[in-house]
# Entry
Amino acid sequence: LTPSITNGSPGNGATLVDALITAMAEVIPSRSGLSAAVSLGAALDHRNGAVYGSAPLWGASEGVVKFKDLLEGRRPDVRWHVVNDVTAGLLAYRNRHPELSGEKVLFVTVSSGIAARTFDPQTASIPLDAAGLQGEIGHLPSTRGFNTPESQRCACGAADHIAAYSSGPGIKRLAEAWRDRDIDSWRRSVLGAPDTSPVTFEQAFSNALDGGDRVAVEILRTAVVPFADVLTYALTLDPSLDRIVLSGGVIDAIGGHYVTAVKERMQAAGVFYTSEHEPEWAVGKLTIAERSDGAGLIGAGLFAAEASFTSATRAMGSVSR
Ligand SMILES: [Zn+2]
# Structure
């Protein structure tokens, strides 16, 4: 189990970082010439393995954590590779789908947060910005919420980011807002039915969608709007994107319903003129990734294997595969 604030591990940010470093350093056998790859669910600088922040892991106060440096300090005999879990997910997806090797793929995870990575087949890499990042779309301004009663706070602390609406916790908060606003329709919905068995909100929401519950469908429609809009922006700015792959916990649970709602929005308020004249062009690119629980580990391994063959200068500019 990963020591973290989220799962209630004891200690503050600094001691949780230390506990994770210790756990990872101890699990590697003492043998010379070993490499180790780590997949981490945090925004990190892919050039040097420094984590910009991870509120779910360590709380908001920890600042930049030089994660790879700390691992190297603890186990200098090991060659460490630190990769973000979305990047790892994209590498694993491409590995499972060799037929897509020439395609420009936008890989998105929708779970407790939202993030995306684009693989560029021209350079065979995941290009990075000046901070060693790419595709943190969950923390872009949302097209919903601003200065309205439905305004929601993101896990990062800012108001009305995309993840505040379209992520798992975002959907749940929108449902709670519905309940507080319109208790009568809530009570008539599957979501507001008196508990006959101990189901979580996630299970109840999934069941409600399967049954075509009006309230659940309407909540999901509202939730996906900013997410669908950012995909429309992406396709407007870069029509060379061949495929948009959705993955992550929310997609594993309610992917079919989620994609239906996203497509609806992308066709109702889509790429200018194109959504009218070529209605299938944008939504036809959407696909759901098959469930793969080991994708983070597989992708991190692929990242490490590639890094061993790639010159240091190239690795500074991009995440290559
Ligand atoms: Zn945010």
